[in-house]
Amino acid sequence: MKCHIPSANVKVLAKAIQTLSRIGDELYIQPHADGIYFRTVDAQRSAFATFDFHRSFFLHYSSSSNQASSSQSQAQPEICKVAMKSCLSVFRTQNINVEMCKLFFSNNGRMLVFQLVCRHSICKTHHVPVIQTETLQANYNKSTARNKLLTQSKLLIDALQNFSNNQDEITISVAASKMILRNFTETGEFMKNTVRTEFALESTEFDSLQIGVDATVTFNLKELRALLSFAEVCSLPVSGHFDNTPGRPIIFCVNNQPAFDAEIVLATMSSNDTSTFSQSQSTISQRSVNESALRKRPSTSIDPSQSTQKRPTPATPSTPQQPVLSQPPITPQIHTEIEEIQQLHWEDDEEEDSTDSMNTTQTDAVVLAYDSDGESGK
Amino acid sequence: MPVQVSTVVDAEESQYQLVFRMDNVKSIYHLLKSINFQPRATFFATDSGLKVSVESAKCCQANAFIQTEIFQEYTLQPTDESVSFSLDLNVLLECLDIFGDANSNSSPTALMLRYQGYGHPIKLLLEEEDVVTECSIRTLEVEELANFDFTSDDVINKIILKSEPLKEIFNAIEPSTDIVEFNLYSNEPIVKLRTVGYMGEVEIDISKDSDMIELFQCESDSTSKYKYCHFKKALKALAISQKVSIRTDDGGLLCMQFMIKNDCGHICFIEFHCLPVVDDD
């Protein structure tokens, strides 16, 4: 494999590696006849990311099989696993003006070489040791997903900004031309000081939102944030594919045909219970009636006004993700977990009063609901 | 010791051995800060100016040269012995930045420094907008500094570079790097910087036609290795410099000279010496 990457695309590659580094610690590089895959999987094997750079991404590309010049008996393509940190350090300084990046294997495939040709006639050569010749393949199919969304990355980034940075998981619900983002806590029970945030997005906000089936899925937020920041830098739209089948992964894609495309596959917990959604939906519609001007702003939902709230609890709270990935020899497995439903009650007059006053004063603010007293569950 | 007492009395009676005054303390503050890799600094006052030396483990040494032009007033009493003192550089820097605006563009702080002689503290008067602070810093015994005998006869290779691209190169060196290998060749590539760390191996080549090279003299190919932890001590000085002259002698001793232009347009120099790592084989 030998390829030359032009200056503008070096930044894309650098950002791609940075995105991958936020997901996994090892980078799998897989050249194929028509480009290179850069892939990673996280330590729990609950998130998989792949960047596929096509031939047109490169100035010049030749996969190893074309180079039959040397007496290499390597019939198989040069696939490798390298430490993410080593690759990250190649692009550590962005401000060096890179004119071209060459990528090839040396030392009989034991070293991966990044050669950066920079301004001022400087040439930086990074020799990254290959850890293993191993490949990574995830088994998933996004085409069967019944719910599809397509949006500019900004919309989701803005929406996610309303959630705290240490929020690990997020729940997405879709029904009736609307998508609701909600923060998720592992215990299923909201503690006294837990902030609950809900954020509704109308279908008109999206470039497209196809809802084939009402669904509620919960997945890790970290990886989505990583992909969104990549999409933002490249100013590309993001698409999402998911279903209501329990255990099916949610897939987010960034497409820039014909140069490259990126996908992340995230394990989900799904809940068949849509009553949660319909309840909160009613509150949301009240508040986002005249929102055409305020469309980008968060809608609100005030939970204490609802006397009952159903909430999924994972069967194994500590590890909500299921393995969606496997090494090629192993047959893919997707576990299913059916969540228990737990009921929570809010009976707090004082809280209702305060939120009512909020209603009147600031309809467009995020109103956060608290399980404010030990009275819940009475 | 009676002899010392009498010299102290003499000094008090006469004048201070060294007095200097400057309108803007910033011009030396940043200079001194860039060599602050060891707390103990030694000041040598001569007729041409001040030399401030900082040394680490006798392996690397930085000297800042502050010419008299930078001072608005500079008085050195003619004495037989050289006027020198050591002090804690951190304390001095803290005093110089006592108004806390060294990094902002607010009104300048004026400085007057007086030194009576051996055994006396240095006295600083700092003034900003009619607020005067008086500081007194105890001086330490002058430490013996390694003499990096870098005579121009032994210089085999010399290169003058623009600082800006070099900063980017040096800053991109992985912090976990242990050894930096510095090669100068008479043929392409003329400069090769090689680092080996946990993350792999990095080679940085600079070719002859690079616009960052202002002067290049190479008598014979040279290769020498330096500890990155020593090498990186020069990075702060590099960061504020405009040009760098890098010289190596036949023993592998590295001498980097940084040309630094301060706000008032005066030029100061920082010299950095670093001993090579000797291969076992």
TrEMBL record, chain A:
It comes from the Eukaryota. Residues 274-288, 312-323 have a biased composition (Low complexity). One of its GO terms (biological process) is cellular response to ionizing radiation. Residues 274-364 are annotated as: Disordered. Keywords: DNA damage, Exonuclease, Hydrolase, Nuclease, Nucleus, Phosphoprotein. It is found in: Nucleus. Residues 299-311 have a biased composition (Polar residues). One of its GO terms (cellular component) is checkpoint clamp complex. Gene3D superfamilies: 3.70.10.10. One of its GO terms (molecular function) is exonuclease activity. Belongs to the rad9 family. Component of the 9-1-1 cell-cycle checkpoint response complex that plays a major role in DNA repair. The 9-1-1 complex is recruited to DNA lesion upon damage by the RAD17-replication factor C (RFC) clamp loader complex. Acts then as a sliding clamp platform on DNA for several proteins involved in long-patch base excision repair (LP-BER). This is Cell cycle checkpoint control protein. It comes from Cloeon dipterum.
Automatic annotation (TrEMBL), chain B:
It comes from the Eukaryota. Belongs to the rad1 family. Its main location: nucleus. Pfam families: Rad1. GO terms for cellular component: checkpoint clamp complex. PANTHER family: CELL CYCLE CHECKPOINT PROTEIN RAD1. This is Checkpoint protein.
